[in-house]
Amino acid sequence: MVSLSFWNFEETMLGQGFSLQKSHFFYGPVLQDLVLVDVTPLSLGVRKSGGVMDLLLPRNTTIPTSMEKVYTTKFDNQSSVLIQVYEGERTKSVNNNLLGEFVLDDIPPAPRGVPHLTVSFDMDADGILNVSAKDKESGNTNMIEIASNKGRLSADEIQRLIQEAETFKLEDEKHVKKVKAMNSFEDYAHNNQHEGDESDDRKMWMEADAE
Question: Which residues of 51-85 are buried (b: 16+ CB within 10 A; e: fewer)?
Answer without folding.
Answer: ebbbbbbebebebebebebebbbbbeebbbbbbbb
